[in-house]
Amino acid sequence: AGTAYVLSAPCDTPGLPAELAARLTQALDSNQADIATVTTTDAEGHVSLHPVFALLRTSLADDLAAFLEAGERKVRAWYARHKTVEVAFPDERAFYNINSLQELADLERC
Questions:
Q1: pLDDT for 33-70, tens place per residue?
Q2: N or C: which end of the chain has fewer CB within 10 A?
Q3: Residue 32's pLDDT band (boundaries 50, 70, 90)?
Q4: Residues β-bridged to residue 40
């Protein structure tokens, strides 16, 4: 990338919040972090980390390449090597993974 940041979001998540990039940027900059990622809290109060929704500094590219070349694949393990900030979003539905028309219809009914 020719920019200072890269935004990562799965292509099978149709409900992304419009303010995703802005909120992650604000958290990354205000915390002088390398990575900003998403958390949500469900109705029972359980917090979930959504690590593939993230804003990352492109200066981490060489470290990521080395991590992958070493055979590593766990996103959370790579994040642990860097200063990471978690950004809470109120609507967990915005980050649902949809893989079929049936799942999309189910989401729209809720």
A1: 999 999 999 888 899 999 999 999 999 999 999 999 99
A2: C
A3: very high
A4: 48, 89
Starting at the earlier edge strand, list the strands of the sheet with 84-89: 5-8, 47-57, 35-41, 84-89
**Do 91 and 19 form a contact (C-beta atoms < 8 A)?**
no
Q: Parallel, antiparallel, or unpaired for β 5-8 and 47-57?
A: antiparallel
Question: How many domains in the chain?
Answer: 1
CATH code, domain carrying 25: 3.90.550.10
Inform me whether the pLDDT recorded for 12 exceeds 80: yes
Specify the residue for token string 């766990």: 74
* Local structure of 55: helix, strand or coil: strand
**Structural domain of 16:** 5-109
Amino acid at 45: G
Q: Which residues contact 6 (CB under 8 A, 6 or more apart)?
A: 55, 56, 58
DSSP string for 81-107: TS-EEEEEES-GGGG----SHHHHHHH
